[in-house]
Amino acid sequence: MDEVLDTGANHLLAALPDAELRRWLPLLERVDLPLGHVLYESGVTLHHVYFPTTAIVSLLYVLENGASAEIAVVGNEGIVGISLFMGGGSTPNRAVVQSAGTGFRLPAEALKAEFNRAGPVLHLLLRYTQALITQMAQTAVCNRHHSLDQQLCRWLLLSLDRLTGDEIVMTQELISNMLGVRREGVTEAALHLQAAGVIRYARGHITVLDRQKLELRSCECYAVVKKEYDRLLPDEFAK
């Protein structure tokens, strides 16, 4: 199958009007996004934006001592590289693939040219950006005020929404880097969920057994973020 035919696997691309999508099709490139691959580093000028299809990308802030914490996740609902059309050109965070898969990339100039047309793409990208900012703000609140168990539940739910199945491949080290906590804390929280029959956890594989229980054990932060995405983005984004 021609790679351009599955652009609908990214909901943001699927939401584009036909005329705008046709302008992008010759420029969109299908790319593999392996686990741990860095799409951009802090302060580096971006040359492409990425539209994940089956991969999930984590936006991380990395401190001078090497410690890091996740500020947002982007999957098949969105785009990686919003600083390009927001006018900054670069950003102080790092984008790392947290769940391997595929996606599309588009040259920076093509995106900026479409954004500057001030048409449907501009309005769509600004609504997406508002939803992403909500996720970032809610993540900060969650990390400050809620338990590690609740944070892990929120993180698992956000990841599940961006995957087609119920299994997440993720090492303890990566999860601890995302949440900004020690590996021992992640292990303890995961074992709590496993003992409650919510997940099965072994060798870097997390399988969600009961999503309803997972949502009940999560704090309100997941619901706030999901409600904002559903409110701001078109029907193509609905699960």
From TrEMBL:
<keyword id="KW-0238">DNA-binding</keyword>
<keyword id="KW-0805">Transcription regulation</keyword>
<dbReference type="InterPro" id="IPR012318">
    <property type="entry name" value="HTH_CRP"/>
</dbReference>
<protein>
    <submittedName>
        <fullName>Crp/Fnr family transcriptional regulator</fullName>
    </submittedName>
</protein>
<dbReference type="InterPro" id="IPR014710">
    <property type="entry name" value="RmlC-like_jellyroll"/>
</dbReference>
<dbReference type="InterPro" id="IPR000595">
    <property type="entry name" value="cNMP-bd_dom"/>
</dbReference>
<dbReference type="Pfam" id="PF00027">
    <property type="entry name" value="cNMP_binding"/>
</dbReference>
<feature type="domain" description="Cyclic nucleotide-binding">
    <location>
        <begin position="12"/>
        <end position="133"/>
    </location>
</feature>
<keyword id="KW-0804">Transcription</keyword>
<dbReference type="InterPro" id="IPR036390">
    <property type="entry name" value="WH_DNA-bd_sf"/>
</dbReference>
<dbReference type="Pfam" id="PF13545">
    <property type="entry name" value="HTH_Crp_2"/>
</dbReference>
<dbReference type="InterPro" id="IPR018490">
    <property type="entry name" value="cNMP-bd_dom_sf"/>
</dbReference>
<dbReference type="InterPro" id="IPR050397">
    <property type="entry name" value="Env_Response_Regulators"/>
</dbReference>
